[in-house]
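FORM 7B: Structural annotation worksheet

SECTION A. Query
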Amino acid sequence: MRPLRLELKGFTSFRHQQEIDFSRLDLFAIAGPTGAGKSSILDAITYALYGKVERVGNQCSQLISQGLPAMAVSFEFSCGADRYRVARRTARKQPTTVVLERNDGGEWRSEAGKVHEVGERIVRIVGLDYDGFTRAVLLPQGKFDQFLAGDSGVRRRLLTELLGLELFERMSKLANGRAKEADVARKTKQEFLLSHYASVTVEALAAQRRAAAEAREREDRLEAARARVSEIVKRWDAVRQAAQELSGLAEEAASLAQEAAGRSDRLEMLGRDAHAARAAQKGAASAVAAAKKRKDHAQAELDKAVGKLGSGDQLQSARAKAEQLEAARQELSEAKVRVERAEDAEPKQRAIAAREATQANAAEQAVVRANADVEAARKALDGLRHDDRLAAVAHGLRSGDPCPICRTPLRALPLAPGAPALKNAEARLRSADKLLDAARQKASSLLVNAADAANAAKGAVNEVRAAREDLRKEGARVDVLEKAVAAVLGPKLPAAPLAVLEERIARLQKLRGDVDDASDAAHAAEIARSRTELSLEHISGSIASEAAAIPVARAKGLLEQGRKLLSDEVLPPVEIEVDIRGDATRVAQRTRTLSASLSRYAGELRRLREERLASEPGVLKEAADAIEDLVPPAGSLDAISKAVAQATKAATNEAAAAETRAHALADALAQKAALIGEIAELVRREQLLHGIALDLRQDAIVDFLQAQALRGLAREGGARLQELSDNRYDLRYGEDEFYVADLWNGEEERSVKTLSGGETFLASLALALSLSIQVSALSSGSRAQLDSLFLDEGFGSLDREAVRLVIEGLERLGSDGRMVGVITHVREITDRLPRIEVHKSSTGSRLEVVP
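SECTION B. Predicted structure
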């Protein structure tokens, strides 16, 4: 993932629209005073991508600039050859809205428009979730110096957090859970074993096998009795055979008659069902035609609406622009107010400055006058003092005497001014000095006021210029958004374009719903028609099956057997022929006629059978003696034979049942053994899983993986440290500590705690880059392509030499093809790099890219 452009407004200290173009930046700094909003740039990126910021979590409305109703961030980035743009907006009292777009041939096309959909797509596109992104792309401030040279326990905890080694704790919990599941399954099977297999024992199996042997013994005795009865019956074989054949023919004829009657009933019912199914098929076909007509009409209405109103994607994109337009118009209105206020304040501030300047000039003139008064008072006092001293020296002289000072003849004798005059002159001088001090103090105060007023006037001019520039930008942005919305709504925008777009979207959604409803109805009608066709086919198949199953052939065979058996007897005729190709009702009538004929034929066969069996009582006693007491006595030879056969059959069934029970009991014993084996396996599995959970709860696995990861980090970090330090330093790891090998000094190893500030930073940076690669690999495998890295690290404590090492290391880093951004306010670093300058002011921070 590589950033291309970031736009933000109303986000923390960035009250007004700000933009950053990353497309020409590789290695750069983010600079600005404390509190200007440097780290907020990284917060804006995570907010745009994931809707989350580390310091507030999901409560992103807390980041809205004070006094503003909403904030908005648009972030454009690339992943491989694809370019994406995600725009997210959060208002104080409204849900967050977000749109994800992909650049397709120069045009932005919507990818997703719901919060959860955008979240899922971002994870798939970037290859990292929020935690992985903040671990691998945004390196947190201060953690990596601690990671390099801090306490080993703290380092391992950080490594566990960054690499997600808490997985093993989750695995321990999972093993514990599965061990409990195995224990519950064991208890369940044990309860089942006790409740279902308590009576399944080897003794019970032996008893059941003895019962089966006794049943087989009775079966053998009955079989012998049946053989003796058969020998008795053989003497009457001809009569009995004939009677039996007649009986069989009669039963078969009755059975065929009953079968034919049943077929007739089912054919009549199927005939009625076929008539109803054909009617239903006709109705279903009409319903299909009507449903298709409704569907075509609904689709035509939708196509017409799309052609007139625009597609759903166009409307959704225009809706997002309309929301931005409303906010932009509000900002434009606010900018106009700011311009008006600034323009009103500017002349007032200039007037105040002019008034203060005039008062300051007057105060300076007053100082000049007071100074002149002091000089006059001082001269007057000096003159009086001179006259006083001269008068004292000239005491006793007369006019014409030489002056004792200048030896010039005195024209007149000097007069002493006297003490009162001198005191008055001194008082006037003191008063003049006090007035001069007061004038100077007043002038100084007024000069400060005048300077402040002049600065305020200059600030008012700058405020007017800034407000007008904001007004121009907001106006341009409104024009761009109005054109974007007008591309969908037409050149003449309505008063409330957002409401119009929402109305159009709602209308398209309703028309799509109508199309879906009509499609569902058409689909249901097709299903109903298919069902009627299948029903009719099923009924037709059932009719054909029933007709084919009419026992005509068997009836013909029965009549043929009757003719052979009773060649000299006259039997009633049977109407056999049935045309199965006709209507089901007609076939049913012919089948019913066949059934009636077969019933009469069966009755005649029974009458002839009774005539054949009239001679049977003579052998009845002999047969009764043959069966002994194995079966109850019967009143006919047939009954005796039947009773013996039934008893034999019953004995056979009983023996088979006893053997089946014995086999079932043997199977139950095997199942019981298998269940006991399963219980033992569950006990073993529960113990194994419990042992695994205990092992996973130990620190051995995590310690091993941490050590392996730290050695891998040292190797990767050492290679990068050599690049950053011009092949002077290599990074080593041993005894749970990091060491630096000085390659310019015989590879002497020393603790990283002895490094200077700059050397520590380079080593920390190398380790951070290595850890970033490790975290990206563990977070998402080959899908995560991390082409950018942001270091939020403080450099204020570095000395000049350390700063030099940092700059040289960063400049070497800029050639590896990765975008690297460093947040700092150290000018020795920022002046050597392209930078994003964050300017702080009372009206909100603003951004400037300095190449």
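SECTION C. Observations
The first helix runs from residue 38 to 50. The two ends are 23 Å apart (CA to CA).

SECTION D. Sign-off
Analyst initials: ____
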